């Protein structure tokens, strides 16, 4: 979840789901939404069009009164409808039906970043990108909770006419009309049929049945991607300055597909269908479900069709970190984005009665605590609940916490919700302590009472003090905004991690980008915490999540597409990946990027190729390019059946697998390497000493000038094992004479067996002295 608002939405979803449960008569099968994939070329000649065929197919298995929810024609061919399991089975048996898949529910995953990324003002990279001109116009389509169009982030001042290629619409609805759009916000649509079929009618007292954003998440993500520059932006004075999106001169189109009860795949596909047809050049989806087979993953299916038509799709990696194998959106044709920190923080200090001081974070802006220390108590000692340490609603005893600072542990409920529980019980302030799951990562919140979030070590020390003296005291001081924090970036503890559970040979995430304490535009409907009790209204909010890192990359992709309109989506992603950095360049902290969860070095399973560096990405020298046929070959290597491939890739000329072709996932021209070695058992059950060789092939395309590139390899994190792998690259030099020229190479990775379950990491780099084209390598022994 990207922020506390999302936690609120998910909590409400449970209540909505319970209220919307369909009453089913005895003996009657329950109806659910299914997405039906049709083979468009198989339409019988007696039908005038595909819509007529889809309707006839539905009526053949279901009552005539059962209407389609959506008909799709861009990102897939087919329709969605409410069906019983029996009807779904009957429909799947019809000629021309490729698959009938049950709908899935997805969850939302949420300025200084232009300066941090080197693309603000007169920064080194600022002059590399086009500033205006319809020839370079790119529309970023954002599929989320909608938009708050009155935000100054959607000002169209200085923008030319809407590009002639644009086919989108500004759809009216409750609290939203067509005049809400302009030359910046060029389109706004909403999709709720799938949601309403599953959850019941939209509750218009709580959210608008229109593109209007009553949650805040969608406004935050779309303004991060392509918001106009807004001077004097801040949240209660925190992070004051000019707020702007990554591509401030790009256009924005919003597709509201997420509601209080979640984001349903039938609606998401309808939004993607429209976005691609409207003319979006980049799609940004800060949402996801669990990792699933590509032929059953609606976002992956929609993204494949978008890629076929030249549209780059960026998705958030998820917020299930720091556990391993927790990623969402792992299809290789999706750009998967994890989260890192900025060099900006919002310090708050906890001073204890024993004279010790601890630093945390806070965005509290109200009346401060008195300068004299107050009593402090651990929530577990102020509650009769077994989970009293978590400050859940109704668990605190008012007579024990009244007038005191309460120490609460993170977990289960939203961070700001815990503060509200403390306030309602009469507490004066809160110290929010991380647990092992969050480590030292600090995420700031606009609390409703004086509060500070602290790391696990600090929280443990504070709780130890509280337990060790008869009358413990403390005070909290909120100190404002601090910039220049080092080290930065650090991989966010919540950011989901690899390995990729669907295809381990594809390393994910692809990159990380800023996703912690990000300032961007906000809705006027709810306060910065999203809580009903929060009556504050703000134009900008500071929230965290891979939901926030994804639109950074979406906006950067729009910049690259405007600078290089001839580049494919894969070329854009390659440029972002091969120019990313995975280590600190200088100073006492030089070395691999750190992991906030552990404080130790992070790995390619955490950050992929590294942290994006847009000033370098605009001139990468070489790219690893890919097209639809390459991805079909990848699916062939996965032994997909013709029907499974047809459900993902609908263009008939690109679908067939050759019978005698030896397809291999290791041939996919990806800008990273995931190398899996098998550890066979030797005598006595130990690992065999036999060497294992794994071969990968890649092709580089020259997008720069003439030059000779030489290759180098190096072990990084987990170096001892990585140094035990022999890496042979052939050839070791590639000479390019013209733009567009392609050169291939082979890499042979040879290793003697290591203990099963271990991993190590390296890096393969091509350089001509000016450009550095780097690829991460992840080794695993299974």
Automatic annotation (TrEMBL):
Membrane-spanning parts: none
GO biological process: proteolysis; system development
Residue ranges, annotated region (Disordered): 201-224
One Pfam family named in its UniProt record: Peptidase_S8
Top-level taxonomic group: Eukaryota
Residues annotated as catalytic: 144, 217, 547
Biased composition (Basic and acidic residues): 204-218
Keywords, alphabetical: Glycoprotein, Hydrolase, Protease, Secreted, Serine protease, Signal
Every Peptidase S8/S53 domain range: 137-596
UniProt domain Inhibitor I9: residue ranges: 33-109
Signal sequence annotation: 1-25
PROSITE patterns linked to this entry: SUBTILASE, SUBTILASE_SER
GO-annotated cellular components: extracellular region
Sequence ranges assigned to domain PA in this UniProt record: 389-462
Subcellular location(s) per record: Secreted
Subtilisin-like protease fibronectin type-III domain residues: 668-778
Gene Ontology molecular function: serine-type endopeptidase activity
Assigned protein family: Belongs to the peptidase S8 family.
Name used for this protein in its record: Subtilisin-like protease
């Amino acid at each position: 979840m990207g922020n506390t608002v999302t936690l609120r939405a998910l909590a409400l979803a449970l209540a909505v789901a319970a209220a919307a449960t369909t009453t089913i008569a005895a003996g009657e099968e329950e109806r659910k939404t299914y997405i039906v994939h049709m083979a468009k070329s198989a339409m019988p000649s007696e039908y005038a069009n595909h819509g007529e065929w889809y309707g006839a197919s539905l009526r053949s298995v279901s009552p005539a009164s059962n209407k389609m929810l959506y008909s799709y024609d861009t990102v897939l061919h087919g329709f969605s409808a409410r069906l019983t399991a029996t009807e779904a089975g009957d429909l799947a048996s019809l000629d021309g039906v490729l698959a009938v898949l049950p709908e899935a529910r997805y969850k939302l995953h949420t300025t200084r970043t232009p300066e941090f990324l080197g693309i603000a003002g007169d920064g080194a990279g600022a002059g590399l990108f086009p500033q205006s001109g319809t020839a370079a116009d790119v529309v970023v389509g954002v599929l989320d909770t909608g938009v708050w169009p009155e935000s100054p982030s959607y000002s169209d001042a200085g923008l030319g006419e809407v590009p002639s290629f644009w086919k989108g619409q500004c759809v009216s609805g409750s609290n939203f009309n067509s005049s809400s759009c302009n030359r910046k916000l060029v389109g706004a649509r909403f999709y709720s049929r799938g949601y309403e079929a599953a959850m019941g009618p939209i509750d218009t007292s709580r959210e608008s049945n229109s593109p209007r954003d009553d949650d805040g998440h969608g406004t935050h993500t779309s303004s991060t991607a392509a918001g106009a520059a807004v001077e004097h932006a801040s949240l209660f004075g925190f992070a004051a300055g000019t707020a702007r999106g990554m591509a401030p001169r790009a256009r924005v189109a919003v597709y509201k597909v997420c509601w209080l009860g979640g984001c349903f795949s039938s609606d998401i596909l309808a939004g993607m269908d429209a976005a691609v047809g409207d003319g979006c050049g980049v799609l940004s989806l800060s949402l996801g479900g669990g990792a699933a087979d590509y032929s059953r993953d609606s976002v992956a299916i929609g993204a494949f069709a978008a890629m076929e038509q030249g549209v780059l799709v960026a998705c958030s990696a998820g917020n299930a970190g720091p556990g391993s194998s927790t990623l969402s959106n792992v299809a290789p044709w999706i750009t998967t984005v994890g989260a890192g920190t900025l060099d900006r923080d919002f310090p708050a200090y906890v001073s204890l009665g024993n004279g010790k001081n601890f630093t945390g974070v806070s965005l509290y802006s109200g009346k401060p605590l008195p300068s004299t220390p107050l009593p402090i108590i651990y929530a577990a000692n102020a509650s009769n609940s077994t989970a009293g340490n978590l400050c859940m609603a109704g668990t605190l005893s008012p007579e024990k916490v009244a007038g005191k600072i309460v120490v609460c542990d993170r977990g289960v409920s939203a961070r700001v919700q815990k503060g509200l529980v403390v306030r309602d019980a009469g507490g004066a302030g809160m110290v929010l302590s991380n647990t092992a799951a969050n480590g030292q990562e600090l995420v700031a919140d606009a609390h409703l009472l004086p509060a500070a979030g602290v790391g696990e070590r600090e929280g443990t020390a504070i709780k130890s003090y509280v337990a060790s003296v008869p009358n413990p005291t403390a005070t909290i001081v909120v100190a404002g905004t601090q910039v220049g924090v080092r080290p930065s970036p650090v991989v966010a503890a919540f950011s989901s991690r690899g390995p990729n559970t669907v295809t381990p040979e594809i390393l994910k995430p692809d990159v990380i980008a800023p996703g912690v304490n990000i300032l961007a535009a906000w809705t006027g409907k709810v306060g910065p915490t999203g809580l009903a009790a929060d009556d504050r209204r703000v134009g900008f909010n500071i929230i965290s999540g891979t939901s926030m890192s994804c639109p950074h990359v979406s906006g950067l992709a729009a910049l690259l597409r405007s600078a290089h309109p001839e580049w494919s989506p894969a070329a854009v992603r390659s440029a972002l990946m091969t120019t990313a950095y995975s280590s600190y360049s200088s100073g006492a902290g030089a070395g691999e990027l750190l992991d906030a969860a552990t404080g130790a070095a992070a790995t390619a399973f955490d950050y992929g190729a590294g942290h994006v560096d847009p000033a370098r990405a605009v001139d990468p020298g070489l790219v690893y390019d890919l097209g639809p046929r390459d991805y079909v070959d990848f699916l062939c290597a996965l032994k997909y059946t013709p029907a499974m491939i047809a459900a993902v890739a609908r263009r008939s000329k690109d679908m067939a697998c050759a019978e005698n072709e030896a397809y291999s996932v290791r041939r996919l021209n990806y800008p990273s390497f995931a190398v899996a070695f098998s550890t066979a058992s030797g005598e006595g059950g130990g690992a065999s000493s036999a060497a294992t060789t794994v071969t990968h092939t890649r092709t580089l395309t020259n997008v720069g000038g003439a030059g000779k590139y030489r290759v180098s390899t190096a072990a990084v994190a987990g170096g001892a094992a990585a140094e035990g792998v022999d890496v042979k690259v052939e050839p070791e030099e590639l000479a390019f004479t013209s733009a567009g020229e392609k050169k291939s190479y082979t890499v042979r990775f040879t290793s003697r067996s290591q203990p099963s379950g271990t991993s190590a990491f390296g890096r393969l780099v091509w350089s001509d002295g000016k450009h550095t084209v780097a690829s991460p390598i992840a080794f695993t022994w299974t």
